[in-house]
Amino acid sequence: MDEAEPFTYDGGIVSPGETRNVRYTVSETYLGDAVRMPVTIVNGERPGPTVFLTAAAHGDELNGIEVVREVAHEWDHDGLAGTLVCLPVLNVPAFLAQERYLPIYDRDLNRSFPGDPDSTSAKRMAHEIFRNFLAPCDVGLDFHTSTRGRTNMLHVRADMDDPEVARVANAFASNVIISSGGPSGSLRRELSDSGVPTITIEMGEAHRFQRPLIDSALESVRSVLAEFGLRSSDTVRWPGWRTVIDDTGEKTWIRADSGGLVDMHYHRGDLVYEDDVICTITNPFKTENTLMRAPFTGLLVGILENPLVYPGNPLCHLVRLDDRTQRAIEWNRRADDDDW
Ligand SMILES: [Zn+2]
């Protein structure tokens, strides 16, 4: 069997059996101080693949931070076969400002990969992160939430046409997988294209720790690590039901037909049937109601949280289900109800 290998980055080597917390300089402030990103590298005593876990590429998306921190600092890593590279806060300036994008120029760090050492501040930062901590890995998990003011059910975004990526996505064991290559410059796309199969996990809303979602994601991380042989104590999960939505599958952001205040009648993750009234938009006098109906039977993958809309603002993200998945969901929901 191969020997376990050290993990190296600019300025450091982490030996097998060693865990190291690093504050890695990715940029400088206006005052010339270092902008330092927290990194934890857990190098197992036994050989195996290297897996990265990243969060807060968008600075206000917090759920994933707690997932990454718990994996790094609360799990028992005795017997780990491989290495975990844990980056709970990728976008430090945006995190400090509690904004989605890098402050000042509003650059999206998650459109700046793989980065460039001679380009914008975002691309320089992305370059440092990419080359030191992401490109040397074998598998990647990148945690996100919905944009501020909306919320997502926990789901995976992955290029299911790529068998290596599909292996990671299936092992994560979420009910819903939305298949796409992902936008150019996104961490997931650029890593997958350079041979590190990477998925995005969307979970909940910005500015929150949402414990049930965090716990569920942690179970799924165990499942991925089991699939790739890092932890023999865990097993690969099956989520009970699964739907994979590809480019041909029907999915739509339902947008407001009038401005007003929104009364949402469903929660994220709910099944709605064709013609169900998903939400009602009212004027300030409650004299006019606009009923927004489901154009087809499907799953509410995302919904708005902030109940104020202009015409054209998104209300919910609805994806069509095939009959088999619909029946599986109905059966699972009934089983859940029986538990009470
Ligand atoms: Zn995000």
TrEMBL record:
Source domain of life: Archaea
UniProt keyword Metal-binding, yes or no: yes
Regions that span the bilayer: none
One example GO MF annotation: hydrolase activity, acting on ester bonds
Alphabetized InterPro entries for the sequence: AstE_AspA_cat, N-alpha-Ac-DABA-like, N-alpha-Ac-DABA_deacetylase
Necessary cofactors: Zn(2+)
The entry's keywords: Hydrolase, Metal-binding, Zinc
Pfam families, sorted: AstE_AspA_cat (PF24827)
Keyword Nucleotide-binding annotated: no
Domain spans labelled Succinylglutamate desuccinylase/Aspartoacylase catalytic: 47-226
Coiled coil spans: none
Record's protein name: Succinylglutamate desuccinylase/Aspartoacylase catalytic domain-containing protein
Organism expressing this protein natively: Haloarcula japonica (strain ATCC 49778 / DSM 6131 / JCM 7785 / NBRC 101032 / NCIMB 13157 / TR-1)
